[in-house]
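Predict structure. Chain length: 176.
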Amino acid sequence: MAEYYYFGASLPMLRMNQAPQLSYEAFIEACRENLSKRDMKDMELAVLSGGEGEASIPVVKAFRRFSSELGKAINHQRALSLGFSGYEEDSTDKEIRDIAKNIVNEKDPLKAENEILASYFDFLSSYESSSPFSTESLMIYSLKLQILGISSSFSMEKGRAEFDKLYRNIEEDIFR
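Prediction complete.
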């Protein structure tokens, strides 16, 4: 795996709950200029949505597994809270089950979504290697940047406006 000393050192630090100084698009463009073709191919698989293709980098595989397990655990907890049984298999990992319980028990949907993103961020932080200039570290950076992009796009005003719009549409459908 290649080391990208200058490129890695030039990237701004990322912190949860702070808007990133660099957009994901700008980061990917910089990656195209600095990474080898093989590493860039791997980088394209380091996306929150799972990407198209089988990831060969261990941290990307682990993140996909964590994300999937957390999703299953959240679905299981939601099903239980709604009184459904056997709806979704729960995670076998106690820590993931606990995270899912906290998320489902959160009454504010925005806080719950931020808890999901924070759990992703923390998971990736636990994989940061002793070599901050490796391709794997750049993939962690990429995933974290995507998380922060989503987190910083949340707006109470936009969310309220969308909720009101959906609510009006439902009312119109009911009272027709």
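Summary: The first helix runs from residue 5 to 10.
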